[in-house]
Design brief:
Blueprint: H1 8-20, H2 27-43, E1 52-57, H3 59-69, E2 78-82, E3 91-95, E4 99-105, H4 113-118, E5 125-132
Parallel strand pairs: 1-2
Antiparallel strand pairs: 1-3, 3-4, 4-5
Helix pairs in contact: 1-3, 2-3
Amino acid sequence: MSKWYEEEAIKEWIEIAIKLHRNFINIGLALGIRASVVGMKALGVDRSKIEKAEVWGVKCFGEAVEVMTGCKLIREKLVFHEIYEPPLKPKLILWTINNKAILELLAREFKNEDEVFNAPEEEVFENVTISNINL
């Protein structure tokens, strides 16, 4: 069984996120990548259907969401709330035309990005909620 990050379309966007992050991946970037993918899968859409994103986290987390979802801060499709106060508890909201996904990550420390990519979802996410909305 292949890993979620080995899917060809996802793999390409991960490579772009790393490249734009000065060819470096860290835990914040990995969490943003993972949260974006989990959110889009929960909504049943790819990045072309994401209308807006709102992020609470470190800059690397926000940068990953920007790349993975296509929602750009400069186009006002991404709202970013920087947090650095422990315990870091990132959060992501993704909107499509009809639905939104709210992803609340656990306040936990990871050793490295491989642990973020390979941990079971229940060890990364506290809650993933989908609701119907009208934008």
